[in-house]
Each structure stands twice: as C-alpha cells, then as structure tokens.
Amino acid sequence: MPTTETDEHKSLREAVAALGKRHGRDFNREQLWSEAAKLGYLGVNLPEAYGGGGGGIAELSIVLEELGAAGCPLLMMVVSPAICGTVIARFGTEAQKQEWLPALADGTRTMAFGITEPDAGSNSHRITTTAHRDGADWLLTGRKVFISGVDIADATLIVGRTEDSRTGRLKPCLFIVPRDAEGFTRRQIDMELQAAEKQFELTLDDVRLPAEALVGDEDAGLLQLFAGLNPERIMTAAFAIGMGRYALSQAITYARDRTVWNTPIGAHQAIAHPLAQAHIDLELARLMMQKAAHLYDAGDDVAAGEAANMAKYAAGEACVKAVDQAVHTLGGNGLTREFGLASLITAARVARIAPVSREMILNYVSHQTLGLPKSY
Fold first, then answer.
1. Are 228 and 84 in contact (CB under 8 A)?
2. Which of 7, 52, 75, 324 shows the greatest Cβ crowding within 10 Å of its Cβ?
3. CA separation for the pair 69, 239 (Å, rounded)
C-alpha cells in the first residue's frame, strides 16, 4: 500500500477542510449535507456510472475526517454512502442501483442502517429479526435499537435472517425498508448525547416487502453483510480521528496563547508532552485507517476486516485521550460552550462502543489474528 498520500488525496483534504472551516462547530447539518453533496463529496466512493465520484472508502474517509477536524462531522456519511451505498453498489440489482445510488450520491435521498438489536447487539448470529416468504413477497418481523437518522432517511437497510433452503439454518439477509412501510414504526431514544442525528428503536410488525426489496443473493449471507460493516469501521475511525484532531487543535491554540507567570502554558512539558502523545496516537490510528481503506478498495475483504477493526480500535482510543487532554489543557474553559469541547467528552466515547465495542475487537484479533481459543 502507498505510504504517502497522492496529490489527489491531498487536494481533496484541502478542499474539504476549506468547506468545514466555512461551516465550523455551529454548523447546520442540512446546509452542510447539501453543499457537500453539490461538491461531489457525499458520493465520492460510489461508481461514476451512477453519479458518484468513482473513488472508494479511502476518499470518503478523507471527507469525513476533514469535516470532523473542522468541528462539523456528518455522522450519516458513515451510514448512507459508506454502508448502504457500498452494499447496493456491490450486490444490488440494476434497478436498485438506478433507484438509489444517484440519489445517495447527490444527497437528495439518504438511507439508514439497522443491525443492532436489544438482545443480540450487533452479533449477526443472534439476530432475531426474521423474514419469511409470503407468496412473492417477504414479511419482516423484529426489533432494532440505536439506529441513527431513521427520521431523516428515506429508507432503512435492515439486517434480518432468512432460512437457508438447503440447510434450514438462519442466515443474514439485507432488505430495503421504506420509511412509510406499513408496520414499520420508530421511537426516539432519549439520549444524553446531543447530536444532529437522533437515535431510534424500530419495530417491524409483519412488514410486507416486495421481492425486489431484498438486496443481493439471499444465500450470500455474511459476505454481503461484512461488505457494509468493514466500511462502517473505517468510517468510524475517520469520525474519531477528525474529532480528536479538532479537540487537539483547540488545545494547541490555547496552550500557545494562555500565559501564566509570563510563560505560555504550552512551554511546560506537563502540558506539551501529553498533547504531543495525543498527536502521535492520532497519526498512528490514521495510518491503520488508510491501510484498511486501501485493502478494502483493493477488494481484499479478509485483510480489510482485520485492519478495519484495528483502525476503529486505535482511533477510538486516540480520540478519547485527545479529547480528555484537550479539556484538561483548557481547565475550566474546557467545559464552556465557547470552546466546544465539553460535548466531545460524551461523543468521543461513541467511537469506543460503536459500531462494535473495543472488547469485541480484541476478541476478533485474539481469535482471528492470533489464533487463540474462544471463551464463548
């Protein structure tokens, strides 16, 4: 993989950074989404034949990271173009591609993603949302929880399970469920974390879907699912790295300007060294994120899975530490609205627990990479 960014990637970073700077921390989500779409950033990873930029997750992660570094990350980028757009582009029918990809690319339509359940979490083997045939249609029944942006999405890509006709075992399948489908209801979850994108619990009560709502081959199972989950982990890493960079930049500016006893506080190693360490950790996490994106875009799903999990883990840890150190550097000012850091204390934790906890990533690495036995 390349060890330095191409000129095209550098130019993309600069352009997106300029967009983020114009909107800043007090950004309007709809306005930023619309402008990013017009500039071609939302669909940069989608095929050119369907209105996208023809790039990959490497390019899309740059967009999200730079917006985050400017203080205005767009969480739905993780979901709509990265997860849903990728899955439809790789496995959707021609009709599904024609219907969804141009609209996802130009921002006129968005799609949410529903996998997490109250009892199963994100464990695809324990998902209880099931689909069974009823004539030519599908009937989908189950519950989902902590699903982002359902209220602003035109549809939700739901992970359910169907019975394998050969073995009788249940396997994951993906269905496009329109927002207004009969039997598809949502309840907003009262979150302490304040964000532009709300979280919802979903109920699917015998939601009737036409045959064409199924994305891809019903026998492909985990292959299609992880085609979306690996980009999700890479983009979560980009989200975390951007957030960490924003916090760090606020702390650096403050440490340069804040003077006590005739010396800027940044001159003291007790302040400077932790900030330097935070920068190092963020840069290391970015390298793993770039590796994961490169492997995924090159079509190496197995290697990308390992790297994507590692990138998400490293970025989550680096983000939490960077935000914590930034707040600590500003002292009481770190908890004021003026500097925009206090809200990141909670937001930074999201990168540690979603879309998969750091403990489950350690399980993945210990089992898949190190070959150690499972405890479960």
1. yes
2. 52
3. 9
Distance, in Å, from the CA atom of 312 to the CA atom of 342, rounded to the nearest integer, reads: 22
Q: One-letter amino acid identity for 130? A: T
- Taking only the tens place, the pLDDT of each residue in 273-291 is 999 999 999 999 999 999 9
C-beta atoms surrounding 33 within 10 Å: 21
- On whether the CB atoms of residues 262 and 197 are closer than 8 A, the answer is no
- Burial (CB < 10 A; 0-12, 13-18, 19+), residue 193, is exposed
The label of the residue with tokens 């959707």 reads 92
Q: Where are the alpha helices (DSSP H) in the chain?
A: 7-23, 29-38, 57-69, 76-77, 86-91, 94-106, 222-257, 269-297, 301-330, 342-353, 358-364
Angle at 353 between CA 239 and CA 80, to 5 degrees: 45
**199 strand-pairing partners:** 148
Coil, strand, or helix at residue 355? coil
Give the CA-trace dihedral at 62, 64, 69, 72, to 10 degrees. Answer: 150
